[in-house]
Amino acid sequence: MKKSEWNDHDIKEMIKQLPRIKDDRHPSHIYSKVKKEKRPWNSVRRFVPALVTLAALFIVVLLSPALISQLNQSNQDSAMEGSFSTDSSGGEAKTATESPANELDSDPGPAQDPKEESQLKMAEDNDKYSESITTPETELQHERLSVFKEDVADKDYYSYGVVSADAIPVPVSVITKAEENQKDWVEQYETISNLLPESDWGFQDYFPIKGDLSLGENKETVLLTMDENHPYSGSSAIESNFYQSLLYSFEEKDVKEIILQNKDGSTPEFSHYGTLSSIPLNQDLHHAFYSYSPNGRDRYLVPDPVNRKNVKQSIGAMKETPSGLFKSVIPEHLSMDVTESDDMVIVTFNEKVDLDSMNFQSAQELIEGILLTARSSGYEKVQFQNIVQGKWNGFNFAHPIETPLSPNKKSLNE
């Protein structure tokens, strides 16, 4: 090549004469521009995993029919091999269903898994529970205030006229185990009277009676031989309580009267009652029942001592209490019509009665108070009408309800 005529000095001079280039951009701005130019490739690289996944799925879809077919064929071959067995002599093959009965019986089978045993036990328990919750309603125990026939199917009960601090006699009924070969029920009555937790129930200590009780020879009377210094005379309230207590204690037993005597055989004399030789039992007294609390906590169904003419008057009297100590069991807004047939009382409420909308014990007192009032007039059944519930607490209102045997059910375990 021809040697250039330019020397270094001339080149430098020429460069100095070139126009000056000025760039006002910040270096970071220039760097960001460079990064942006690299992004297209980065975006493509980000989508590569997704494309690979889609391709893999596409291959699986193409191959799955063949795989499924091969798997089904393998299962069928295994099933065919398992369904046939060859005897030890290499003879003819037999299916399991063609095995002789004696071979099946002799085969003890595989040992049962403990987990399977537990599951079977659980299933049996569930079956038993299902049977228990479908027990007929007549076999269930219901919470009642009074003693009904179903309560004493295999038991006995004894009634006692306990007395409160307000000088109010209250009948309570103690259910006990039936005594086998019992000759004299009066002896059992006296035994239980020594065990009554009267103070726990809200009453005074009144029992046992101060005297000797025995069953008459004809078994139609109870004989009370009183102690010489008995505490049952001195005021009308004391003597009334004594009379009512004995009445409540024996009126539900199959005896006609209580005969009173002193130890010398004479007739007892009281300051207000005068001479009192006997107390008649099992009469239709036409008493009305009310709710009463001796301690502000416990409540009892109590009859008033007034003897009315008939059951209609007795139920009508339940709306008005004889004193401030008693409470009516019939709500103030509720009215009813009462009619009598040959063997039952028919109570028709003039307004629909929704027992579930009431306090549970108040609803119990309404129904059982009317039943006890009807029984006091000698009736054994009551037909209720215009109650919302067809069945409630074991009562079936589609049919006449049997009246209780005795009020205020108790047990010695309470």
Automatic annotation (TrEMBL):
It comes from the Bacteria. Residues 113-130 have a biased composition (Basic and acidic residues). Keywords: Membrane, Transmembrane, Transmembrane helix. The chain crosses the membrane at residues 47-68. Residues 78-141 are annotated as: Disordered. Residues 78-89 have a biased composition (Polar residues). The keyword Transmembrane applies. This is Sigma-X negative effector.
